[in-house]
Amino acid sequence: MTGPCDWPEDWRRRLEAPLPLRFGVPGWRERIRQAWDAALPPPDPVTGFAGGVLRFASGKGAEGVVLVPERVTGCAVLMFHDHGGRFDLGWRKLTEDPQGFYGGPPAQRLVAAGHPVFCFDALGWGSRGLPGDQQAQACMALGMGTSLAGLVAGEDRDIAAWAAGRPEAARGLAVWGFSFGGFRAWQCLATCDAVDAAVALSWMARRRDLLRLGAPVVQGQAAFWMLHPSLTGLADLPDLAAVAAPKPLFLRSGDADRHLPLAAVEPAFEDLRRIWPVDAAIFEGGHVCPPAVQEEAIAFLNARGCSR
User: What gap in Å lies between CA 95 and CA 157, rounded to an integer?
Assistant: First the structure.
């Protein structure tokens, strides 16, 4: 529906109706975790990393990098790259910052602070381009009984499980991301027991506020990578993230972010704070990841992200 009319009345009622697995419902956490596991593909364990390529048991591969500081003083960090509207770049978004979202490569900031870094191309990016546009890709995934969001989340879970067992992660493993990467970070914290902490920048909000008429998430395109069909009618996004409690979670969002408006973000932060003490705050700016916010996140990891 792209015209000026509002959503049908029954759609609006569904958006406003209490969700069945919201926080406080008996057994909500265990039931959401079961729903998370059912929404993702079966595990496809990582079998090794050599020659700049991560290999899975199924035979698929993902290019990427493992960066190790001269002196390791912090937990390892599995970085999830953003969407950014460019599919020719994947992990290099975080090691080179070609689009200028970060004010310089964030991976290098983490390494300079003593954190080993893992970063790989997500399905559809860099070395892993897919045929067709995002709508065609989403239809193919749905036709296979999954979703683009589910395929990526399953891989992120499997990569995190592998990274947590590496010697670089002797001090623990955190996940980190901005935008699409931020969405991936908090969901990986919730779906992978091996992850100790998460930094999720510019992607947390209440579901019904994001699904309003005219909002970016209902335009399709990039949104397909962040929509889990079997989950969104069960629990709100803060409830899905809260499966990770009480693991440390760092959240930031810009006050002028056109993708994540304050009217959707601030209630979600409050929802999360009612469940456990997440470090959530608003910064001045749009849908960007400023160096000052990254430094706050590094300080958070240094203080709370190393649990082993």
Answer: 22
The three-state secondary structure class of 283 is: strand
Q: 245 exposed, middle or buried (CB, 10 Å; 0-12, 13-18, 19+)?
A: middle
pLDDT digits (tens, 9 = 90+) for 18-62: 899 999 999 999 999 999 999 999 999 999 999 999 999 999 999
pTM summary value: 0.95
Angle between helices 134-143 and 148-164 (to 10 degrees): 80
Measure the CA–CA gap between 5 and 248, rounded to whole angstroms.
Answer: 42
- Residue 304's beta-bridge partner residues? none
The three-class DSSP label of residue 300 is: helix
The alpha helices in the chain, defined as continuous H runs, are 9-16, 28-39, 92-96, 106-112, 134-143, 148-164, 180-191, 207-210, 237-241, 262-273, 291-300
Collapse the DSSP code of 284 into the 3-class scheme (helix H, G, I; strand E, B; otherwise coil) and give the result: coil
Residue 290 burial (CB count, 10 A): 18
